[in-house]
Structures are given as C-alpha cells and as structure tokens.
Design brief:
Helices cover 43% and strands 15% of the residues. By secondary structure, the protein is an alpha+beta fold. The chain folds into 2 domains: 2-206, Alpha-Beta Complex (Lambda Exonuclease, Chain A), CATH 3.90.320; 224-293, no CATH class.
C-alpha cells in the first residue's frame, strides 16, 4: 500500500490527487447505490481538468463536526482514534484510493464519521446502514487491509449511532470488480458509462454535449425498437397514473374531508394548503420594464419524440 502525505496540501492539490483514482466517497456512486450521485458524475469528475469544488453547506457541517463525532465515538466505545494525514493507494488495485477519517489505534480498523438530519434517521433504524456508506467502508477495508470498520453518525438533534462492519471477501471482490471495470472501461479510455435513467445522467449529458447550431438532422440507425418501447412505456405510465388517481379518489371519498387517516401500514393526509404565485402574465402586461428587469434567462435542451408524418 502506497501513501501520500496530504497534511500540507492545498485544497486544489488534494482535489487533483482525488482524480487519480476511485475514492471511498465515489464507490457508492460507481456501484449504483448512491441516491445523490451517479456513476457518470464520478466519470465526469475524473476525466475533467476542472478543479472547482462542489462543496455545500451539508459537506461543510460534516467536516466541522467530524472531530466531535470522533470524540463521541471514543467516549462510547473506549477505543482511541487517530486522524490520518495520508491518502492511501492499493498496491494490487492502484485505481483504488482511500482518505480515511480516523484510524483505530491497536486494531486493524478505521472509523468513518458522518452527520445526518433528523429526517434521515429511518435509514439508521434497527441497526441499518445506508448502502452507500457501507460500500464506502468496504472500499476502505479493501485498500487498507482492515479486518473491520466502524461508522459513527450524529443524527442532528436526535441520536448518535455506531455501527461495525466486518470484512466480507465476497462482497469486497464484487466491489473491486465493478470499480475496476469502471476505471478501465470508462475513465481511462474516456467512454461514458451506460445510461442509468437518473436525472444526474441527464445533467451530465447537457454539459457533455453542448448545442451545435450548425448541426443537421442525422439518421437514427438501430433505435426503432427502443422508440417503440418508449411509446409503450408512455402509454403504460398514463394508465398507471390514472389507476393511482382512482385509488386516491376512492380514499378521498371515504375520508369525506377529514385531513388525516391511517391503516396499520400507512398514514394518509389530505391537508388544505394555500399557495401564493406571482401572476407573471399580468406583471408583464402592466409593468413590462419591471418584468424585464427581474426576468432571468435560462438555457437548456428539451428532448422530444413524436411519430413521423
């Protein structure tokens, strides 16, 4: 296992180093289990020269509270932890890198520190671990040769949870295989991962393929089967939405205006709400200068399919 000292690195240098391999925070997305990030987003990050930081408030709070989470973990378990100042790289699989939150002293183990909102507490219920976090820890075990990992999560304003994950060679082999394929078949040759239907993939496509004003219509070859299936799916979606609405309507009739109802398994609400919306049509007509001053132009690409005449 190779290691690189990151203690004195600038943020820019650290971001560039991260592009040289698949890290633990990338692993869940590459394996298709991260609800907030897709494999194609990781791909775009790795092949791009852009070093802009996609930092946000939740990430900032997570970093600021990392030391607190580590201290709470030590208090709860009696285990001593040490902050690592290195980026580690697997000898056997050099595309795999690891930036561990904490090392457990006296054990072949590490600690991953997390924070979550109270709305996410159900994801930790009854000993559960969000799948993306589990994959992250298993990625670290593969790189570091750990026998186990701990994950501690501060669920803000609610509770503090600790989970232990033991090494599973079979699952680890599957993760390595997926990451290896992603790195060798996509990142290195710069071939986009297969579509996954996610909104994140759509966003990457808009950036990856900018508008070409001079482009003429092209002949689609080999897509008739896909387009027929797309048409069938649209018809099925319409039928399913109608069926869902019928169920909603039957429940509303039964509730007779009551705002709350429940069964053994479900809770239903039919709450009166008031929404204020700006009358843009009237504003444009009566105050065109004001409308123009506060109108923001956005650009995007709209994808449509219709039957040929």
């Amino acid at each position: 296992m190779k290691k690189t000292d990151i203690s004195s690195m600038s943020r820019e240098e650290w971001l560039r180093l991260r592009k040289s391999g698949i890290g633990g925070s990338d692993a869940g997305a590459v394996c298709g289990v991260n609800p907030y990030r897709s494999a194609v987003a990781v791909y775009q990050d790795k092949i791009s020269e852009d070093l802009s930081d996609d930092d946000n408030e939740a990430m900032r709070q997570g970093r600021d509270l990392e030391e607190y989470v580590a201290k709470r973990f030590s208090e709860a378990t009696g285990l001593k932890v040490k902050k690592s100042s290195f980026m580690y790289r697997s000898d056997e699989h050099p595309f795999m890198i690891a930036d561990i939150d904490r090392l457990i002293l006296g054990e072949k183990a590490g600690l991953e520190c997390k924070t979550a909102s109270a709305y996410s507490s159900d994801k930790w219920k009854d000993g559960a671990i969000p799948e993306s976090y589990e994959i992250q820890c298993r990625h670290y075990m593969a790189v570091m040769g750990f026998t186990h990992m701990f994950i501690a999560c501060l669920i803000l304003g609610k509770e503090f949870v600790i989970r232990r994950i033991d090494r599973d060679p079979e699952m680890e082999a599957a993760i390595i295989s997926i990451e290896e394929s992603f790195w060798n078949d996509n990142v290195m040759p710069k071939v986009m991962p297969d579509p996954d239907g996610s909104r994140a993939y759509d966003e990457i496509l808009d950036k990856y393929f900018p508008r070409r004003d001079d482009a003429e219509a092209i002949r689609l070859i080999g897509f008739d089967k896909d387009l027929r299936r797309r048409e069938e799916l649209n018809s099925l979606i319409d039928k399913l939405e109608t069926e869902r609405n019928e169920i909603d309507q039957r429940i509303k009739i039964y509730m007779e205006g009551t705002e709350q109802a429940q069964t053994d398994d479900y809770r239903v609400s039919w709450i009166f709400t008031e929404i204020q919306r700006l009358d843009t049509k009237r504003l444009k007509s009566e105050e065109p200068e004001l409308y123009s001053r506060y109108t923001k132009m956005t650009t995007g690409r709209r994808f449509t399919v219709r039957r040929a005449a």
